[in-house]
Design a protein that fits this description.
By secondary structure, the chain is α+β, with helices and mostly antiparallel strands. The protein is built from 16 helices and 24 strands. It folds into four domains: about 150 residues, Roll (Hypothetical upf0131 protein ytfp); about 140 residues, Roll (Hypothetical upf0131 protein ytfp); about 130 residues, Hypothetical upf0131 protein ytfp, CATH 3.10.490; about 150 residues, Gamma-glutamyl cyclotransferase-like (Hypothetical upf0131 protein ytfp), CATH 3.10.490. The relative contact order is 0.07.
Length: about 675
């Protein structure tokens, strides 16, 4: 480093130099950095190049880092590595750590109308595929700068770009496009006995089919088709032989041309194509995410068996391995009998039974599950219950799953757990993957005019808030069924009920403040919009896990605060804030929120709109006391906060609870400082 009186520079970086190892090669030391945001620019991909560029774009913003204290000599190195296609300019960025503005230098693409610019460059994808290569590339460019030896910078860059992605220059390597189970690193890592460099790509002119009776897909030519997959790069002959053996003679390995997703470059690769392009067993479209959910573990086990078999066949054939990842032909029609003597049933489920962890406990096995849609019904919430119901609704549509091949005993378990309030009926569903129609059974709410039905039940919300409770309930149900011990089904049913849910009648502060631990204790509903949206923070502060509901507050804006990591809200005529309602809080829990917010906020009653039902509701919220505060600016971002500051807030919340229980002479201000930062001068 230069001496203290030598001039130094602050440099905003946004591409490959974000990688510490790359920056260290250029500086010949670790970089000192602070996170920053550059407004008025966009970060583009460049066709045929792995690095990005930025050019002015009025509504754009670029996340990056400022490398501080760069000497003149170090800045000259950056100039050399960036080359003449970039120009170094002075811009103003906003530091993410303290919200201060800062004058810095950065590299902007000279040709602002370059037709090679497209999309948005992704740092994480670049790290996985190119980071190691860039460390080497910059090192060679800097060596060239010291000793050109008759070569130009362009000669060095071109020579680096032409290098193949192989394990060595002496050994031939292969690039193979994969589209099924081999997209999963855990599977392909076992088969190849290494983890290759993997690049996203698209193959045009082919379609990815399901195969009847098999868990794996195949591809065959289709003029308008397009397949998203991966290229396994730099495979050795031995690794390619492993793929050949596992695919077998039903596939033919051919050379095809794919389009790399990140650069739009074309690339010649090999791929395994189904030999019989007219095979009647091909249908629909294979789904990678569904395969991961249902079959990935089986394939991992199969891959381990394949490697064992290859090392020691012991008289066994490849066919024994192949059978391990095949199934009997899939269902056709209503029943999926395991034998002609044992009838089986296919049941459409739409609530908690979509969750494998719940349904596996109830059925005492994991069934084959297929995605489906039921038309002409609606999925309702039920007041005072955590589970939903369905009832006829002319224009309705319910997304769910078909549990296939259930025995009579398993069907009886479903009947018992649903009880007399549901009626089992035969309905027609449409299979999501194939658009085929299928007769199945479904449990429908007996009272189609029940006034307790409202809104729309949400599976993701249920998973987040109630799934653990349902898993415990399912275990209790199985115990009860095996040994009722004078208990009734009603005792089990109460386990998954709650006090009446939020409505404008049950939660409004003007309606007796319900949802309490007892009728004698008042409770409060509080709209939160910042760090208290995060369960791991609010649970620590409240010392409980409250029921939360999504809501919107109109007429306010969510501001950042200079020098603080938390936001505030203040009136704004056209403003809209998305947040959560913490329901049923006790006086003591509300006091905790009051203490942590402090006297810079004022707790007021406001009206919000519930996201799920569009009902209006009176709640309390914390509004910034000084609506003309000059420190208010911009818009606070929850996802950015989660990524950068959540862990600090969790630690702060623990400290707050410790302090509240034992102040030990310390003041609230000591806690507050923990989640604030000094306002650093630019």
């Amino acid at each position: 480093m230069s001496c203290s009186d030598a001039p130094s520079h602050n440099l905003f970086v946004y591409g490959s130099i974000l990688e510490p190892a790359v920056a260290a090669v250029i500086l010949d030391r670790p970089a000192d950095t602070v996170p920053a945001l550059l407004h008025g620019y966009h970060k583009y991909k460049l066709k045929g190049r792995p690095y990005p560029c930025i050019v002015p774009f009025e509504s754009g913003k670029v996340n990056g880092k400022v490398i501080t204290g760069v000497s003149d000599a170090e800045l000259n190195k950056f100039d050399v590595t960036e080359g003449s296609e970039y120009e170094r300019v002075t811009v103003e960025v906003v530091r993410m750590d303290n919200s201060e503005k800062m004058k810095v230098e950065t590299y902007v693409w000279v040709n602002k109308d370059d037709p090679s610019m497209y999309g948005e460059w992704d740092y994480e994808e670049w790290r996985v595929i190119h980071a190691d290569k860039f460390v080497e590339a910059f090192r060679e460019v800097l060596e060239w700068n010291k000793n050109p030896n008759g070569k130009t910078r362009e000669d060095i860059v071109k020579s680096l770009g032409k290098r193949k992605m192989s394990s060595s220059d002496q050994s031939p390597s292969h690039n193979v496009f994969v589209y099924g189970s081999f997209q999963e690193p855990a599977v392909v890592g076992l088969i190849l006995e290494c983890t290759p460099v993997i690049v996203s790509a698209q193959l045009h002119g082919f379609h990815r089919y399901r195969l009847k009776g098999r868990l794996h897909p195949c591809i065959a030519p289709l003029k308008t088709g397009v397949i998203d997959g991966k290229v396994l790069t730099g495979l050795t002959d031995a690794q390619l032989e492993n793929l050949d053996m596992i695919e077998g003679d039903e596939y033919v390995r051919k050379t095809v041309e794919v389009l790399l997703t990140d650069t739009s470059e074309k690339m010649q690769v090999e791929a395994f194509i189904w030999a019989n392009k007219d095979d009647p067993d091909m249908y629909g479209e294979w789904d990678f995410e569904e395969w991961k959910l249902l079959h990935m573990e089986k394939f991992i086990e199969a891959s381990e068996k394949f490697i064992e078999w290859k090392k020691n066949p012991d008289g066994r054939s490849r066919e024994e391995f192949a059978k391990f990842v095949e199934e009997d032909p899939p269902f056709r029609g209503k029943k999926m009998a395991t034998s002609e003597q044992s009838p089986s049933y296919n049941v459409f489920v739409y609530g908690s039974f979509q969750e494998p962890a719940v349904v596996s406990l109830i059925l005492e096995f994991t069934p084959v599950i297929v995605s489906a849609q039921l038309h002409g019904f609606h999925l309702y919430r039920l007041k005072g219950r955590l589970h939903p119901c369905i009832a006829p609704f002319e224009s309705g549509l319910v997304n769910g799953k078909v549990l296939t091949g259930l025995t009579e005993a398993q069907l009886k378990n479903l009947d018992m757990i649903q009880g007399a309030e549901y009626v089992r009926k035969t309905v027609e569903v449409v299979l999501t993957e194939t658009s085929e129609k299928m007769e199945v059974e479904a449990l429908i709410w007996a009272n189609k005019d029940d006034p307790d039905m409202y809104g729309e039940w949400n599976f993701e919300e249920w998973k987040r808030l109630h799934m653990d409770k349902f898993i415990e309930a399912s275990k209790k149900f199985i115990e009860w069924k095996k040994n009722p011990d004078s208990k009734t089904r009603e005792e089990f049913e109460k386990f998954v009920h709650e006090d009446p849910p939020v409505t404008t009648n049950s939660l409004s502060l003007s309606h007796s403040r319900t949802m309490t631990s007892s009728n004698q204790s008042p409770s409060h509903n509080v709209f939160v919009y910042g760090s208290f949206q995060e369960p791991s923070v609010v649970n620590l502060i409240l010392e409980c896990d409250p029921v939360t509901i999504s809501a919107q507050l109109h007429g306010y804006h969510l501001y950042r605060l200079k020098g603080r990591l938390h936001p505030c809200i203040s009136p704004s005529e056209n403003g809209l804030i998305n947040g959560k309602i913490l329901t049923g809080l006790t006086d003591a829990q509300l006091e905790n929120l009051d203490m942590i917010e402090g006297d810079e906020y004022v707790r007021k009653t406001v009206e919000v709109v519930l996201t799920e039902t569009s009902e209006k509701m009176q709640v309390e919220t914390f509004v910034w006391a000084n609506k003309d505060d000059p420190h208010l600016y911009g818009e606070w971002d929850f996802e950015e906060w989660k990524k950068l500051h959540m862990e600090k807030f969790i630690e702060a919340s623990k400290k707050f609870i410790e302090w509240k229980k034992n102040p030990d002479g310390r003041s609230r201000e000591e806690f507050v400082k923990f989640v604030e930062e000094d306002i650093t001068a630019a």
